[in-house]
Amino acid sequence: MSKLLNLTLHYKGKKLDQVRYGRDFKNKFFIGSDKYLFWQILDEKFPEKHLFVTKKGDQLYLQLPPGAKVSCAKDGEPVDESYLTKSFILQGNKLLLRPDMTGTLAIAPNWEISYEFKEPYVSVLTPEQQQIAAQYACRPQPTADEKFSRNMILLFVILTVIFVIIFDLFLKKQVSYDTTLEQKLQTIQKAERIQAEALAKPSTFEEAGEYAEVPEETAGKEQPSGVPGGKGTAKSAGAIFGSGFGTFDPSATSAARPFQAVTLMEGFVTSRPGGGGGG
């Protein structure tokens, strides 16, 4: 199995975190003082965002931050910076990461990052461990009560689904609409327009005010509607009944309201001689 790159972050000599190539990052890995980065370096002088790991082809490179110091070892033996430069491992601020080498970078005061290549850890179980795992990894057999409860729940769910299907296909009433929603809206708008037009028309109804008193000069004249006035009605009553009314003043009806004169006329007309009415 091929070895994979592992990066470890240290603060004051203590391990804080570790990332692995292929699991935590692939082609690029950023560090910086920005709080939204996966590795935040709490140093004001450190860049806010720095591209730390890049990949070109099959090779991985470390981009050294400004002022960083690097120390490497090959096969457990320390090597100096001149060896790295002659071997084209260190070119400018790029450090080639090789599986046979390890190293440590001091990127800021109290902050260090170490790298190494390791094979992924794979746990291999012994025959005894496999037997124990097979014994306790299976689920226990359900009891009679658990089986009954499970079967009842399944039966209830199946019956519910069947009932819903039957209700939807056969029992549910199919609602049909004679008009569409647009037609209903047009009808409502038309009714509102008709109501608005009716309210805008002037009303022909006039409230009846108080009846004005008829002047005495016009009491003996005929009414415009052809109904005899109060004066003529009073003479007919006096001629018919004579002095039976005592001190009745025929001219008193001339000042009454029009509807009172009409009422008196109807009462006396029924009492004329030769009339068909009794009394």
Describe the structure.
With 279 residues, the chain is α+β, with helices and mostly antiparallel strands. The chain folds into 3 domains: 115 residues, Tumour Suppressor Smad4, CATH 2.60.200.20; 43 residues; 40 residues, no CATH class. 32% of the residues lie in helices and 23% in strands. It is built from 6 helices and 12 strands. The strands form 2 sheets. It has a 6-stranded antiparallel β-sheet with strand order 2-1-12-11-7-8. Helix 5 runs parallel beside helix 6. The protein is flat and about 105 Å long.
Q: Report the end-to-end length measured between terminal Cα atoms.
A: 138 Å
Predict the CATH topology of the largest domain: Tumour Suppressor Smad4
Reading the helices and strands in chain order gives: EEEEEEEEHEEEEHHHHH
Mean pLDDT: 77
Overall domain count = 3
Shape: flat
CATH class of the largest domain, named: Mainly Beta
